[in-house]
Amino acid sequence: MSELLVVGSVAFDTIHNHLGSHARILGGSAVYASLAACQLAPVRLVGVVGKDFPRGAVDMLRGRGIDTTGLEVANGETFHWEGRYADDLTSRETIQTDLNVFADFEPKIPPAFRDSPFVMLGNIAPQLQLHVLDQIENPTLVIADTMNLWIDTALDALKELLTRVDILVINEEEARQLTGFHHPLAVAEALRALGPETVIVKRGEYGALLFLDEDIFCAPAYPLKAVADPTGAGDSFAGGFLGYLSESGHTDLRQAVVCGSATASFCVQDVGVGALVELTREDVQTRIRDFRELTSF
Ligand code: AMP
Asked: pLDDT tens digit string along 178-196?
């Protein structure tokens, strides 16, 4: 089993959805990805929080076996994101992003984390993702996520980052925005031309597409009766995906995509990180078996 370094936002989220308003609950790309990966691999978390971040949340992360040595506590308030979902949960608008301590964040990778073989650059400014990569010695596999905000405001840094990552995980709408193409093969070809050997396009309730060389793999999203909150589904997918690869002996990207989809399907069944904090390895394994049944013909 290899160590997995996860860098990203650690946040308070305020979420408005069909179930009501959920104010200042624990979130952030690094939190979702770490909780998704931690039952599969040893996770090393790097991020920043403010003095207002509750001790209980850190204890919960540690209780899940996540190494929080790299969680910096800075003067100021924790990053806060507020979003509102459409009633069918297929789209959301960002109402407010308060960077707070993130505004001056310069990720410092603790010396003991610099040999991490697997690196997940969760959604933060691409300049910060690059700064993290500069501090890692010879990683085996680097995967990065991004979002429309950085395509709009930091395109040059994002393009530089893409020349240095092995796998890009991106949602379909943002992949179309970044490439200017619409259809999956054209989008994937254009993304791979920017650098990453492998591209995973997340398609929300329609699952994910994996592009590696000439190989294309399609995993559905797990069919559910109800979704409580899609926040963090993308980060949970990436955490489950890379967690699977970090386990010794797993090099099969297709299996890893299914593990990502299985993990994300748990995430959306509760609000915030509610389902992930209780997730077990057995839960994920059972759902992977369900996927096999679901897609076999
Ligand atoms: P997802 O639903 O997978 O896109 O991820 C949702 C998480 O992304 C939330 O928990 C937010 O705290 C976090 N997030 C939203 N905007 C940003 C941003 N600009 N930078 C970093 N993290 C963000």
From this structure: 999 999 999 999 999 999 9
